[in-house]
Amino acid sequence: MNKEIAFQIMREYEKKQDDVIREIKRKTQEVYSKIPLIEKIDAELSKISLYFIKNSFYHPDKSQEYIVQLKKKINTLKEKKIHMLTANGYPPDYLEPKYQCQDCKDTGFVDGKKCHCYKRRLIEICYEKSNLKEVLKTHNFNNFRLDFYSEDVDPEQGMSPRQNMQQILERSRKFIQSFGENDGYSFLFYGRSGLGKTFLSYCIAKELLDRGYVVLYLTSTDLFDILREFKLSDDDYTDEHIQMIFDSDLLILDDLGTEPLTGFTLQELFNVINKRLIHGKRMIVSTNLTLDEITSYYPERIYSRLLGNFKLFYFFGEDIRLKKRDI
Ligand SMILES: Nc1ncnc2c1ncn2[C@@H]1O[C@H](COP(=O)(O)OP(=O)(O)OP(=O)(O)O)[C@@H](O)[C@H]1O
Ligand SMILES: [Mg+2]
Ligand SMILES: [Zn+2]
């Protein structure tokens, strides 16, 4: 992503802060006109607060007792104000700022780091731009069809594609339910084309997005395009999209194995998988490659992670794309 999006988000935060301030001003005027005493309390409060700040700033050695007394006075006035408000039928926090995000107070940052609401907004914008929102309207668990998977037992697998998919579905539900837990694990979906790997990844993405998690969906080609562009650009602006590759709660990496295998892609793939594993960030990786192909195409440091740290799910059965065409 680019500067444009970062600016858009910052403008949104400024607007939110502005709205909060205007709303408080409006409410304050309303309260003053109904309860003039509160205006007097407020005037007194700002006078004492100023004293308090001046004294603690310019005379830090001034008797602690005096400071404590000022504090006490401030608290008493605040209590009185709340009492007046509630006595007149207002909620006690009527004049408190109502931020949409209490954590960053609608600034987008907490301790210099991006707040969760910033990250969420960023991904929303990415979705709007990538049309994933449209895809998820149809690709979700409501439209998941088990009847595309045959009930005939596959002798090689010792179960039917339907039984297999039921198990995968069960594990996917657990994956979603336990998503916030620390000992997160990742999924590797592998199998031939048209068996629903991408579809199921979308279903899981939708559930997690609805629960407020940040999910990034990228095909392997997208991933390397982004990383390549980042590497080649001389713009040292921290690229938001790059950050999402490492920071998103879930990274869906689709069609692994369609990228060219070069020193660059192998190094970057290792980097992404390794960093996410170290930080306990989950992934769903899908591929048409067999396990044998994975071990022969990728160096050990990549395949040992994919096969050792991911839960593997083999998709088998008949191509759903062909089945859908028959209907
Ligand atoms: N469980 C399902 N219910 C309904 N439709 C499905 C289901 N699974 C897959 N489909 C549909 O079948 C088609 C193929 O599915 P999908 O693209 O997920 O396969 P894939 O395993 O990712 O294939 P590839 O390896 O080629 O990427 C898509 O049109 C998808 O919408
Ligand atoms: Mg797919
Ligand atoms: Zn926030």
Tell me the CATH architecture of the largest domain: 3-Layer(aba) Sandwich
Main sheet specs: 5 strands, parallel
Strand order of the largest sheet: 4-5-6-3-7
Name given to the CATH homologous superfamily of the largest domain: P-loop containing nucleotide triphosphate hydrolases
* Helix and strand run: HHHEEHHHEHEHHEHEHHEH
Secondary-structure-derived class: alpha/beta
- Total domain count: 2
What ligand species are in this complex? adenosine-5'-triphosphate, magnesium ion, zinc ion
Number of distinct beta strands: 7
Tally of individual helices: 13
CATH topology term of the largest domain = Rossmann fold
Low-confidence stretches: none
Percent of residues in helices comes to 55-70%
CATH class of the largest domain: Alpha Beta
Strand content: 5-15%
Q: What's the shape? A: elongated
Mean pLDDT: 91
